[in-house]
Write a structure and sequence with these properties.
about 425 residues, mainly beta, Neuraminidase, six-stranded antiparallel sheet, 3 helices, 35 strands, about 5% helix, about 40% strand, globular, disordered N terminus
Length: about 425
Amino acid sequence: MGHLTTLTGVVVLASMLIPEAAAQSCSGVTGRYQPKMGSGYRSSVLATGLRQPRHIVVDSAGNLLVAEGGSQGVRRLVLQDNGNIVCVQSNTQIVSGSTNHGIALSADGKTLFTSNLASVTAYSYDAATGQVGTGKQIVTGMSFQGTHPTRAITTSKWSPDTILVARGSQSNIDTSTTQQSAARSMIKSFSISQGLQTAHNYNTGGEVLAWGLRNIVGMTEDPIYGGFWSVENQMDDLRLNGRDIHTDNPAERLSYHGVLNATTNRYKGLNYGYPSCVPAWDPQNVGISGLLVGGLFKPDGVPNVAADECANSRMTGRLHFHAHTAPLDIKFNKNSTSAYIAFHGSWNRNPADGYRVTRVDFQDGQPVHGVTSKTAQIPVMENSNIGGCPNSCFRPVGLDFDQKGRLFVSSDTSGEIYVIYGA
């Protein structure tokens, strides 16, 4: 796989919205939607006509690599500055037919990783030319039967030989994941160098970083403090004692997993409760005395646990978010003062919620807000008409920063890449 195939018939350059100024754009094209931007931010549409763009990564030369869904492969967008906006100089396919969601680069930028529902594949990669080598599977065994086919992946700069792979549940309530041996609803770490020699089997290999996590679709590492973080999509159609409480429960979750290369990591291997215990977003609606935001409780239809297990024996998140907003990615800015989160949006609540990018402020490696806060999110980029979602709006999926501090955002349903300035 060393050739480049140029995409034809796809529009890749688009307009930008600049408050209180004449609109500027790259040559030729306007995006489908006009986002509402938070204070201090502005945006442009970098690319349109893509095929379900999912996670994205900026390479060491400043090019944007995009994993397209449905086994469409990886596209390389070579970028150039045009005044105070960024445009696409060329758009080529560099990997075909092997991805459905995940993409990552090694710490030195010379190896490209992609994931599909069954495996993780590594390619040698030249950021200057876009050339890739022949793919080699380094993690296998993740067969898919159910509703969560994404396999989020990321690498570590603090532990450069490590790749992290998340595998979600195979159903809304996956009862077998009460046992680690199910090898689902967890994050595992694997040695890259060993995988290049002999592929790891996800079911039996690697180390469990965290489990009891229903569906992790976004993971990242703090560039300054080294902490590893994940965002989780929690359970749908929740009931408690026969009562429907699903509109505002359970909470989506931001979880902390320690520093990967630490000599002692007390967070390593912790169980976060799924499928038996879920976190509250609206404790009053749950109706359990003393329950706080993020507190774990046992709903109907899940495997039985001891009376105090949810409260005392399972790890909860560091921050929590509105039910069913579906966080799919998280990235820190370069000085780790903020983490940005892409919320793909709800299908399991009415009215709809999500469909936005928000910011969470950090200090000394941890969120400024406390665990029970409901006000930690700061608006960055939202749909002007959320009533048009999910079919007639942008739906954020992947995030990544370039060295100039520009934040790139993919929208799978609209086939677009946005750029946020001021992040």
